[in-house]
Write a structure and sequence with these properties.
This protein has 277 residues and is mostly beta strands. The protein folds into three domains: 2-90, Immunoglobulins (Immunoglobulin-like), CATH 2.60.40.10; 94-171, Immunoglobulin-like; 180-275, Sandwich (Immunoglobulin-like). 0% of the residues lie in helices and 57% in strands. The protein has no helices and 27 strands. A hairpin with a 5-residue loop joins strand 13 (123-127) and strand 14 (133-134).
């Protein structure tokens, strides 16, 4: 018996392995795969004689695994385990880049690739969004014209993995205006289990409710933090900025929202809410 399949792979990826056994009586067969990580498939079949039997495997941790297979016919006659088929599993390729970036026209920016997992060595391709590119891991680049550029980094490992990530570059005078914050919900009304029943001069909440925040800034939002009675309960780096307030709480509560734009300008807004249940 032998095994057909990949000899290298990545965590959290699906791989198919196949095998077949020869039987003198051409009896249909059952097959069982052992994955080398303490797990097995159980018996698969019946499979017609001299027909491949296949099984799927996903490893969630890296390592070197010895895959084996055995077979038995419908009478219960069972083979021994096959010779091991070695599979090397590496962590999935992960890529990150710093950013967003800001600079003046002609000012050099140092870019950095943060790469882990996969099969080194890696190859890099930076597209700076202005018609220029680089194959360095950590290149430097200057823009001549004001504007906002999308920078893309594509990384290949030494096997089959490819990952593309992007960030933005803003060229021009720094933004000094903090973000604009507004509380969309709950806001000046009586809410019963998340639904606004009637407008009111203050905010009263009965039961669970979604706290929905609207934040805007011309340079883009870096993060939004939500505090309830002085404790941070949520942190967002991208919309929607929504958090479900499901904890019971009687009385007056303070909602605080802190938002930062990509230039580091910070805005804060605070709201009082009465909650029952």
């Amino acid at each position: 018996m032998y095994i057909i399949g990949v000899s290298k792979g990545y965590t959290n990826e699906s791989y198919m392995f196949s095998s077949y056994a020869y039987d003198l009586n051409y009896d249909p067969m059952y097959y069982k795969f052992s994955w080398g990580d303490g797990t097995e498939t159980g018996w698969i079949g019946l499979v017609e004689a001299e027909t491949l039997c296949s099984a799927e495997k996903i490893w969630n941790k890296s390592g070197i695994f010895e895959v084996k297979v055995k077979a038995k016919d419908f009478r219960g006659a069972e083979t021994s385990w096959s010779e091991p088929f070695t599979v090397v599993i590496k962590p999935e390729l992960r890529v990150d880049i710093d950013g967003p970036y800001h600079a003046l026209p002609g000012e050099e920016i140092s870019f950095r690739a943060i790469v882990a997992g996969g099969y080194p060595p890696y190859t890099y391709y930076w597209d700076f969004g202005d018609g220029t590119s680089s194959n360095e891991a950590n290149p430097s680049h200057a823009y001549s014209t004001e504007g906002t550029y999308t920078v893309t980094l594509t990384v290949h490992d030494n096997y089959t993995a490819v990952v593309t990530v992007e960030t933005t570059v803003t060229i021009g005078l720094p933004d000094t205006t903090p973000p604009s914050i507004s509380l969309k919900s709950p806001w000046k009304g009586i809410y019963i289990f998340g639904k606004k029943i009637i407008p009111f001069f203050t905010t009263i909440v009965i039961g669970s409710v979604d706290i929905e925040i609207d934040v805007s800034d011309d340079s883009g939002i870096s993060y939004v933090s939500l505090y309830l009675d002085g404790n941070e309960v949520a942190n967002f780096t991208a919309p929607p900025y929504t958090w479900t307030w499901s904890e019971k709480g009687f009385g007056k509560h303070e909602i605080k929202i802190v938002a930062s734009d990509t230039f580091g300008n910070v805005a804060t807004a605070e709201y009082s809410v009465w909650k029952i249940l």
